[in-house]
């Protein structure tokens, strides 16, 4: 079986600054992987490079055996800021009226792999009201919608960038439960989050980004068996006891 | 669900499931929830839950039935062995601590009897 | 339904909505103006040409924003479709939106004139009806090509600004971006003007007279140059889009 994600010698430069360099990564099917790293370490950039929202400087990215940007996009479902991406020409005027159901309709239109049934199940579980207006949604509601839309696509690789940021504990728990409930068995998921402790039970492996590259990839179980440490403690140790520029 | 960070989660889940079995929350011969249901319940990865269940199968406490799911064994001997194993594990730490207080075995038994008596009265 | 049709469907609907809103506002404005004149017994004739001009300019500006927005937005950049597919879908839907806008405005203009006739516009219409059908058609085509050039050119500017911005050793700030945009516009206009002027000279347009045949010749050359620039800039856009461009929101 081919790997779901393979990255070789990836390099990304912007404004004359190396953001990521010598990134090599290989992920199997059916895993949930945590992407950890300090703020500005390049977690979001790595995800955007995988899905082609950023243009790599050099290197190779292969998702489910395909390499063209277009083909990769049909194998990867990623979260992104709905509020900024769905601003239309009439942004902030009274003419702008993007209801949740308009966004769902957009997903249905442009993604052949979007399952309305699956979306509906998640929306019911997360208590999303389809008549609500996007610009009136709270951070928690927006994140719930983002997760439901992203997971309703039937693909091989899911990228969730900070799905728990700025969200209350009850909603965080609900989001974690919906991720477990609705991620299909074969698919692999990469989650970046600062709530290391809360997602630790969710993860098979962790990727730690440090010094512009992938510092290491470990299985959570190995960290616990070998070092008798929790993922969070281990992560802090890697970053030199939390003295990193967090 | 709160886990101890430094212990593999599949072991912690196995432990919780075992306690539920010996406390008869999951009765002998009854069907366990599906892997996904358990994963959601424990807020854990399905692979992790799968691993817990695999060990439970190897220890013969649960028995998989093709196409139906996992069932708690009907063999009481296995459950009894499991119970005494878990009870011993709980006693291990306490016994060592009491020993370190320079108590002999008789004193430990007596104080435990006393404790149970007080506790029973307290409950009423 | 293929992926390109899927995005076409969304963009055509978006832009149809945009133009419909503009046309709706224009009709509303005309009706309100006429009511105002009826109520307050204003008898001065009012020309409708200004309104048409404002509606078309508004439409072009909003379409430029909308076209550029598609390339900036993750919402569109994540659709499983090639960059070329996205580009043509975007430009093609803008093209049909322009046709819709122009036809809509023409209907509003002639319709409003039929209902509320006024001497200014009747004169305008009479002047345009010179029985030179070819000339008129070419004029309209040149007008549309000009608008397309504005759209395509805006995309070139946008993509160049973000490319150069990424290569500079400074992070993007609003102020720096504005300055950079002005510099890029100027830098693009210089070769554009030089090449256009020289091409016109090469095509032999030294003797510009006011004779009709000379105007027709001018128009033909303009058509040619407009098509050429549209094609050249489209290729430039496709290159920038495939190789460099990143979604910014």
Give a concise summary.
The complex is a heterotrimer of chains A (246), B (124) and C (249). Chain A is built from 10 helices and 9 strands.
Structural descriptors:
heterotrimer; A: 246 residues; six-stranded mixed beta sheet; three-stranded antiparallel beta sheet; 35% helix; globular; B: 124 residues; Arc Repressor Mutant, subunit A; 2 domains; two-stranded antiparallel ribbon
Q: Could you please describe the fold and organization of this structure?
A:
- The complex is a heterotrimer of chains A (246), B (124) and C (249).
- Chain A contains 10 helices and 9 strands.
- Chain A is of the alpha/beta class and 246 residues long.
- Chain A has a 6-stranded mixed sheet with strand order 5-6-7-3-8-9, with helices on both faces. In chain A, strands 2-1-4 form a 3-stranded antiparallel sheet, covered by helices on one side.
- Residues 242-246 of chain A have low confidence and may be disordered.
- Chain B is mainly alpha-helical and 124 residues long.
- Helices cover 64% and strands 6% of the residues of chain B.
- Chain B has helices spanning 9-22, 35-42, 46-58, 76-100, 105-123; strands spanning 62-65, 69-72.
- Chain B has a two-stranded antiparallel ribbon.
- In chain B, helix 1 (9-22) crosses helix 3 and helix 1 crosses helix 4 (76-100).
- The two termini of chain B are 32 Å apart.
- Chain C is mainly α and 249 residues long.
- Chain C has 2 domains: 1-129, no CATH class; 131-249, no CATH class.
- Chain C is 82% helix and 0% strand.
- The longest helix of chain C is centred in the first third of the chain and has 37 residues, at 3-39.
- Chain C is globular.
- Chain C starts with a helix and ends in a 6-residue tail after the last helix.
- The A-C interface holds A 14-17, 48, 51-55, 68-71, 73-74, 78, 80-82, 84-89, 95, 106, 109-112 and C 1, 3, 6-7, 9-10, 14, 18, 21, 62, 65-66, 69, 73-75, 77-83, 85, 166-171, 243-247, 249.
- Chain C: The chain crosses the membrane at residues 18-36, 48-71, 91-116, 136-161, 173-195, 215-241.
- Chain C: Keywords: Membrane, Transmembrane, Transmembrane helix.
- Chain B: It comes from Companilactobacillus futsaii.
- Chain B: This is GntR family transcriptional regulator.
């Amino acid at each position: 079986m081919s790997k779901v994600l393979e990255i070789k010698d990836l390099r990304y430069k912007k404004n004359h600054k190396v953001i990521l360099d010598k990134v090599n990564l290989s992920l199997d099917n059916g895993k949930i992987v945590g992407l950890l790293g300090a703020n500005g370490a390049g977690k979001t950039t790595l995800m955007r490079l995988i899905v082609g929202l950023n243009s790599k400087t050099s290197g190779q990215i292969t998702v489910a055996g395909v390499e063209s940007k277009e083909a990769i996009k049909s194998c990867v479902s990623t979260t992104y800021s709905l509020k900024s991406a769905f601003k239309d020409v009439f942004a902030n005027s009274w003419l702008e009226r993007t209801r949740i159901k308009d966004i769902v309709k957009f997903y249905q239109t442009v993604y052949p792999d979007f399952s309305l049934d699956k979306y509906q199940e998640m929306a019911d579980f997360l208590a999303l009201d389809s008549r609500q207006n996007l610009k009136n949604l709270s951070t928690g509601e927006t994140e719930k919608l983002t997760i439901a839309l992203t997971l309703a696509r039937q693909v091989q690789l899911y990228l969730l960038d900070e799905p728990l940021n700025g969200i209350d504990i009850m909603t965080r728990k609900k989001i974690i439960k919906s991720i477990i409930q609705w991620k299909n068995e074969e698919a692999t998921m990469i989650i970046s989050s600062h709530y290391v402790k809360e997602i630790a039970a969710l993860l098979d492996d962790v990727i730690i980004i440090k010094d512009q590259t992938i510092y290491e990839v470990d299985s959570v179980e190995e960290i616990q068996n070998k070092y008798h440490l929790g993922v969070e403690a281990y992560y802090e140790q890697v970053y030199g006891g939390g003295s990193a520029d967090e | 669900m709160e886990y101890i960070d430094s212990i593999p989660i599949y072991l912690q889940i196995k432990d919780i499931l075992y306690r539920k079995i010996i406390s008869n929350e999951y009765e002998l011969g009854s069907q366990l929830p599906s892997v996904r249901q358990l994963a959601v319940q424990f807020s854990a990865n399905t692979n992790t839950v799968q691993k817990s269940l695999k060990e439970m199968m190897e220890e013969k406490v649960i028995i998989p039935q093709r196409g139906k799911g996992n069932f708690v064994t009907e063999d009481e001997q296995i459950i009894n062995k499991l119970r005494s194993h878990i009870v011993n594990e709980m006693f291990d730490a306490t016994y060592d601590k009491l020993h370190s207080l320079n108590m002999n075995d008789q004193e430990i038994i007596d104080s435990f009897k006393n404790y149970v008596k007080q506790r029973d009265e307290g409950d009423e | 339904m293929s992926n390109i049709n899927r995005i076409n469907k969304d963009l055509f609907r978006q832009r149809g909505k945009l133009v419909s809103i503009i046309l709706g506002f224009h009709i509303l404005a005309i009706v309100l103006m006429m009511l105002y004149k009826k109520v307050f017994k204003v008898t001065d004739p009012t020309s409708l040409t200004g309104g048409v001009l404002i509606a078309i300019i508004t439409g072009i500006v909003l379409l430029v924003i909308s076209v550029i927005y598609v390339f900036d937005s993750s919402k569109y950049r994540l659709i499983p479709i090639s960059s070329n597919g996205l580009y043509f879908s975007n430009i093609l839907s803008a093209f049909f939106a322009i046709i819709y806008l122009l036809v809509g405005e023409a209907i509003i203009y002639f319709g409003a004139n039929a209902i509320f006739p006024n001497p200014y516009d009747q004169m305008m219409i009479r002047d345009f009806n010179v029985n030179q059908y070819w000339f008129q058609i070419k004029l309209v085509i040149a007008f549309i090509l000009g608008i397309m050039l504005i759209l395509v050119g805006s995309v070139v500017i946008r993509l160049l600004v973000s490319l150069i911005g990424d290569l500079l050793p400074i992070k993007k700030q609003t102020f720096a971006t504005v300055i950079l945009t002005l510099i890029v516009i100027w830098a693009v206009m210089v070769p554009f003007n030089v090449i256009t002027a020289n091409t016109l000279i090469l095509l032999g347009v030294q003797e510009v007279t006011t004779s009709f045949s000379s105007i027709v010749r001018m128009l033909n050359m303009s058509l040619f140059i407009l098509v050429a620039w549209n094609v050249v800039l489209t290729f430039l856009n496709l290159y920038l889009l495939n190789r460099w461009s990143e979604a910014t929101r």
